[in-house]
Design a protein that fits this description.
Length: 267
């Protein structure tokens, strides 16, 4: 049986006496778009931060295709193809959109003084290739008309697309998306969703995404994992999760429960 892309085993992350992640175990299978939902304070973002190397775990293990990656720093995981985006976009605001993408690929020839001085032809050729790739990424994301715009001038949704574009500038294998839909209008959210689906189907990206918009989750994600109080509460398809009484009662709210009951009554 093939190893999952990511396997988390009995993960704990404590901040003093507060157990943000409290024995969570889950798997993210290759080629899936896995949703991670739950109330604020459930431990979702902390779990992301531990898996992505931003925070060390208190205990427990994280594996990527069977390799123990527990506690590895983000730059090491980056080279292994594990990338993470943030709820608040982290763009270089004074650079253009194209330049924001061009700085992503590591080990560029122009980064060394020797090459910058004595191998200018090689540096220029590499920059042209990277610029071409950046333009292809922007076209894929349908924001190529913004290539020369300062990134700081983009809307919130456009910045989220730019963050997604950064993952396309390297050989990403698994991408953790933290509330990619937060503060994004419906039109841009659909564009982001289309890009995620295409990256998954056409380029084999595996995604795990934290999201509160259940319509967005239902459209994109299978399976969906529910966290609460630092633990995994439930896992299944979006339809199964949304009809799970424990999840509905405790985490999706009375309004959704009543809506679900009304729909059943109509049926």
């Amino acid at each position: 049986m093939a190893e999952p892309m990511i396997r988390v085993e009995n993960l704990h992350k404590h901040f003093g006496g507060f157990h943000a992640v409290d024995g969570a175990s889950l798997s993210i299978e290759k080629g899936t778009i896995t949703g991670l939902i739950g109330p604020n304070g459930a431990g979702k973002t902390t779990l992301f931060n531990v898996v992505a190397g931003v925070l060390p775990p208190t205990s427990g293990r994280v594996y990527m295709e069977g390799e123990d990656i527990t506690g590895l720093p983000p730059h090491t995981l980056f080279h292994k193809g594990l990338l993470r985006t943030f709820q608040i976009a982290h763009e270089f605001s004074s650079l253009t959109v194209r330049e924001n993408l061009m700085v992503v690929p590591p080990h560029q020839s122009g980064e060394t003084l020797w090459n910058a001085w004595f191998r200018r032809g090689r540096v220029a050729a590499e920059e042209r290739a990277i610029a071409k790739k950046a333009d292809e990424v922007l076209e894929f994301l349908t924001i190529d008309h913004l290539a020369d715009e300062k990134a700081g001038n983009l809307s919130g949704g456009q910045k989220k697309l730019l963050e997604l574009g950064r993952t396309m500038m390297v050989d990403a294998r698994v991408v953790f998306l933290d509330e990619v839909g937060a503060g994004v209008n419906r039109t841009l959210l659909n564009t982001i969703g289309d890009a995620i689906v295409r990256l998954n189907r056409e380029r084999g990206y595996t995604f795990c995404m934290i999201e509160h918009d259940m319509d967005f989750i239902k459209r994109l994600c299978d399976p969906v994992i529910v966290m609460a109080e630092g633990k995994v509460l439930a896992e299944g398809s979006a339809e199964e999760i949304m009809s799970n009484e424990a999840v509905i009662e405790a985490y999706l709210g009375r309004g959704l429960r009543n809506k679900a009951r009304a729909a059943k009554a109509e049926a």
